[in-house]
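Backbone-to-sequence.
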C-alpha cells in the first residue's frame, strides 16, 4: 500500500452507493432531467425504487431480504462508530500527506486532540495541537492514526499526565532557569531536574531530538521569561520608549515616591515613602496607596 494510501471511510462507502444509484438511474428517463446527487426528493424516490426492486430480486433468488437488511444495519452502525475514532485528549499521529507536509516544515507529527466538530455533512473534523503550537489545527480522521500513549511524569510541579501539560511545565522550568541565569544567580535544582526530565520525555514522545524540541518551544520560553522578568523588575521591562514608571507600576512599588528617585535613569529605586517637601507646602497626610 502506498505511504499516503488510506482505508476507505464512510464517505467512500457513500460514494460507492451513489455510483450504484448512478447506474440504476440510467435505466430510466429521469423526471425533467433530475439527478439524485443534486435533488434530495428525487434521491429518496430513486432509493425507494431500488430497495423495492432488491426485494423482488431477493424473492426471486430465495434470499432473506430482512436478514440482509439487519446485517446492513449492524455494519452501518459499526462503521459509524469507528469513524469518530478519537476523543478529546486522545494522542494522535499525522499520517499520509499531512505527515509529509509537517515533516517538510520541521514540525512535529504527534499531537493531542483538543476538539471535535461533527458537521451535518462531510468528515468529522479533529482539532489537534502539537508541540510549540499556539493554536490547534484542523484535520480529518484519515489524516490521523492513534499516537503513542504519554506516560505520566512526576515533577516538582506535580504529576504531568499529557504532552500539552508537559510542554507548559517545561516552558515554566526553562524560563525560571533563564531568569536566574540573567540575574547571575544559581537556578533551583528542582527546575534543572524538571527541565531535564520533561525535555527528554517530550523528545521521546515526539520522536524528535532534544534540540528540535528546544527550538520549537523557544518562542514560548522567551515570552514566559519576559513575563517573569517583568514581574521581578517591571520598570526595566516597560514598553519601548516608556522610560518612566506608569501609575500602575508606582502603585505596585508602594507609591508614593518621586518619579526621579524611582526612574532607572537615577541608578536606584528610591525608598522614600513621602513626596519631597517644597517651600511653603505641607506634605499631604496619610498614604496614597490604593
Amino acid at each position: 500500500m502506498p505511504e499516503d494510501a488510506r482505508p476507505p471511510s464512510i464517505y467512500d462507502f457513500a460514494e460507492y452507493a451513489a455510483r450504484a444509484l448512478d447506474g440504476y438511474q440510467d435505466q430510466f428517463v429521469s423526471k425533467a432531467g433530475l439527478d439524485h446527487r443534486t435533488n434530495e426528493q428525487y434521491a429518496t424516490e430513486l432509493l425507494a425504487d431500488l430497495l423495492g426492486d432488491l426485494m423482488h430480486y431477493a424473492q426471486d433468488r430465495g434470499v432473506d431480504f430482512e436478514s440482509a437488511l439487519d446485517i446492513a444495519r449492524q455494519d452501518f452502525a459499526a462503521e459509524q462508530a469507528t469513524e469518530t475514532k478519537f476523543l478529546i485528549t486522545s494522542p494522535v499521529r499525522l499520517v499520509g500527506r499531512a505527515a509529509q507536509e509537517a515533516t517538510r516544515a520541521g514540525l512535529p507529527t504527534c499531537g493531542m486532540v483538543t476538539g471535535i466538530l461533527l458537521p451535518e455533512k462531510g468528515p468529522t473534523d479533529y482539532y489537534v495541537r502539537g508541540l510549540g503550537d499556539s493554536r490547534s489545527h484542523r484535520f480529518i480522521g484519515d489524516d490521523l492514526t492513534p499516537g503513542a500513549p504519554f506516560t505520566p511524569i512526576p515533577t516538582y510541579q506535580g504529576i504531568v499526565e499529557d504532552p500539552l501539560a508537559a510542554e507548559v511545565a517545561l516552558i515554566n522550568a526553562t524560563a525560571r532557569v533563564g531568569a536566574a541565569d540573567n540575574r547571575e544567580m544559581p537556578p533551583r535544582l528542582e527546575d534543572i531536574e524538571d527541565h531535564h526530565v520533561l525535555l527528554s520525555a517530550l523528545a521521546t514522545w515526539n520522536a524528535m531530538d532534544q534540540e528540535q524540541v528546544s527550538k520549537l518551544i523557544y518562542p514560548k520560553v522567551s515570552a514566559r521569561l519576559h513575563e517573569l522578568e517583568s514581574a521581578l523588575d517591571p520598570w526595566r521591562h516597560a514598553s519601548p520608549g516608556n522610560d518612566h514608571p506608569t501609575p500602575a507600576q508606582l502603585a505596585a512599588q508602594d507609591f508614593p515616591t518621586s518619579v526621579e528617585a524611582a526612574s532607572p535613569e537615577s541608578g536606584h529605586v528610591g525608598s522614600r515613602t513621602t513626596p519631597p517637601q517644597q517651600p511653603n507646602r505641607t506634605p499631604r497626610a496619610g498614604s496614597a496607596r490604593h
